[in-house]
Amino acid sequence: MKNVSALTFYFASVISFVLANVLKDKNLSVYYILLVLGIVLFFLGVLKRIKNNR
Questions:
Q1: Given a cut of 70, is residue 6 above it in pLDDT?
Q2: Membrane-spanning residues where (predicted)?
Q3: Which pLDDT band, with edges at 50, 70 and 90, does 3 fall under?
Q4: Is 26 helix (H, G, I), strand (E, B) or coil?
Q5: Who has the most CB within 10 Å: 13, 14, 19, 21?
Q6: Close Cβ partners of 7 (under 8 Å, ≥ 6 residues apart)
């Protein structure tokens, strides 16, 4: 986790949001799991970026 860049977290969150929207009609529980995962990955990217700028 230390060597992963913030951009990787942002990219993974975008993929998670896209997959969540694609799977929304088929499986609602997977939609919510991917939505929460995307939010968590986004904030991990933000925290990583803040930490690297210091």
A1: yes
A2: 30-47
A3: confident
A4: coil
A5: 13
A6: 45
Best CA proximity match to 1, nearest among 50, 54, 41 = 41
Which residue intervals of 1-54 are DSSP H helices?
Answer: 6-22, 28-53
Q: Are 47 and 10 in contact (CB under 8 A)?
A: no
Q: Give the pLDDT band of residue 53 (cuts 50, 70, 90).
A: confident
Largest CA distance in the chain: 43
Cα dihedral 17→40→45→50 (10° resolution): 140
